[in-house]
Amino acid sequence: MVGITNLLNDVNLSFMGLPVIGTDEAKNLPPSELFEILSSSEKGLSTSEARERLLHYGPNEITEKKSHPFIKFLSYFWGPISWMIEIAAVLSAVLHRWADFWIITSLLIINALVGFREEHKADNAIELLKQKLALKARALRDDKWIWLPARELVPGDIVRLRLGDIVPADVKLIEGDFLLVDESTLTGESLPVDKHVLDVAYSGSIIRQGEMDAMVVATGMSTYFGKTAKLVEKAEKQSHFQKAIIKIGDYLIVFALALSVLIFLVALFRHESMLEFLQFALVLIVAAIPAALPAVLTVTMAAGAMSLAKKGAIVSKLASIEEIAGMDVLCSDKTGTITKNELTLSGIEAFGDFSEKDVLLFAKLASREEDKDPIDNAIITKTSDMQDFASITDKYRVIAFKPFDPVSKRTEATVEDSSGNKFRVTKGAPHVILSLVDRKDVSDVPIDEYVDKFAARGYRALGVARTDAYGVWHFTGLIALYDPPREDSAETIKSAQSMGVDVKMVTGDHLAIAREIARQVNLNSSRIMPVASFLDIPDRKAEDIVENASGFAQVFPEHKYHIVNILQRSGHIVGMTGDGVNDAPALKKADAGIAVAGATDAAKSAADIVLTSQGLSVIVDAIKESRKIFQRMNNYSIYRINETIRVMLFITLSVMLFQFYPVTALMIVLLAILNDIPIMTIAYDNVKYSDMPEKWDMRTLLSIATFLGVIGVASSFGILYIGLHIFHLTHEVLQSFIYLKLSVAGHFALFVARTKGPFWSVKPAKPLLIAVIVTQLIATLITVYGILLPAMGWGLALFVWGYSLTSFLITDLIKLPFYKLLDHTGINR
Fold first, then answer.
1. In sequence order, which residues have a C-beta less than 8 Å from that of residue 770 and are 6 or more positions away?
2. What is the pTM of this model?
3. What is the mean predicted confidence (pLDDT) over 603-627?
4. Is residue 333 flagged as an active site residue?
């Protein structure tokens, strides 16, 4: 079917007179023929041409198979929980309880509508996050290099590919030296492949080295990836937290089934109607099952992810929120995260017969403005501020340029002067530049001393060299670059440490630079270690060094992976920041991989979080927000377990001990629906984030939930006694009386469960408060006026509210010493 669709598309495009070409055909055609076929040139397309082609070719994206909203809505009537409610409705019809039938059916539809609406909102939020993470590409439009969303690329576009980019479409390489391309995601080949002019690079592959210009030959579903991709949505791996929540759901279902079996045995012994029992048992199980669980999880995670996005941290995987909440070690890049990433040229040291102006000139010629490289920008900014410097550089023409890559650690340009003489210039790491020149040429120059002197002041040294008429390299001098710490870095690090997160600075810079920056941001500078200190030594000793260090200097990307691995072996939840293509393995390995602002596409695709603004404070904000999300889910879990124990145990014991059904099947359905709808708003509730990394503590959760549930059971038996022996209520009115108590007390229990301190210690969010008030007002009105249930009047309703409020205050008071008891016994540690 996909093949037929593509064929029809090709026929339509050909009929319209638009060029159609496959990637396989493009492999065998020279660029000149491709330019002719695709009506393009080395100057790319005009904006109007590109716009017209986009309309006909469609967006450059892999189409996802999405369910129709109506089909999605119908799915809410399919599944174990829905089946139980539907069977209960059918049994109501069989028993000729038509009022129950219509009410249960209506409530089923209302529940589906609310769930569909909330999930739709969550899906929209997730889609918005995807758009923010969408790839961008450099394209030549109207004879200018511009950034544009990769989905807007069309065949015939000229794009520039460089280190760290994800190839945005199938392209033919037309200009440049070479590319080292990682095609493992497409072919399974683990080793990168060399690509040169006339080769084809495939959409989705990663540039590991080099820089080249290319022409787009296929986009979207016409690419190699688009044709071979299986059109199925990949299920996201469940986080530990999600698995724990599902376990709670399973536990509650088993608990409900066990109690239902007990009631069944009692009904069988008493020769009660099996149809009536079955209807009651079904809705009882429905009440116990956390029907809102999937929606609460999705809405809470999505709402939290949107909050994180507003703070400059986009979550690429919702499940990673839990890992951020539990992170106890953060390995942070120095440049751009702890520092401003605003390099300034702070000094020049010229060697031999070269002047400072010569050094600066050669550095400028070895820089390229369009690459937006921070070092290049610092040099270009410095030269643009100098008078008459433009008149000097105008005498030279760059005829070839090799951009920086992590292997060579330098840039290089081939230059021609006004007399036609050609020479090469380069700039890069001092030791790399030193390896190019004859050591005798610099034997009397104390280069290491200059580098150390710069480093002691926090300056980074950059070596500059040029070739002579014979092609021999000469070291012309050193440039000092300074990247000052951010004003808020010291305070932010202190804040992170107070939250139980050990911040370790990671940098490729000289040890002296790292220690000076560490000193300025109040990290222990004496514990900044060279990366060599823990390499090639026994594991236990390496673990001790890495755990106790405040940071690491002279780090290469491959060392980051090693650091993460050592910390994880020691039992830590590790966050690692990165920006380069070689950081991707460490970002994937880390529990929370964080791609910093300006990161390469490869780093972004490997990360759990992508930062859109610079600085450590964004990461700390993300930690706080993630812990809030975790707390909301923890509160929901306590409430849900407590509610099941409170309702199920009370009803089961009432049936077994007193031969009395305290509520009807309809009342249980009402209870389940009216109490679940406002629970959706827990996603927006106010919570206090924990001062320590979050860990899923099932023992504490079950202990406090069971404790609250047992108190609730005792409170329910108390009001049952009052209704029977003090108010002498009829059977029907007593059931309404009990129903209202279970409903009102259920939401009071939510306010007990949502805080570890007194209920007023954290003010509830307005949406949650309004939802609770509205649903409980409905519950009160239907019992007072007998709209769906037997009427009992305002007097009894007000008594129920007063009784429930008193029970709530007593429970909240008892809760505080119980939490202290858990702490004292070590359960809550």
1. 681
2. 0.72
3. 83
4. yes
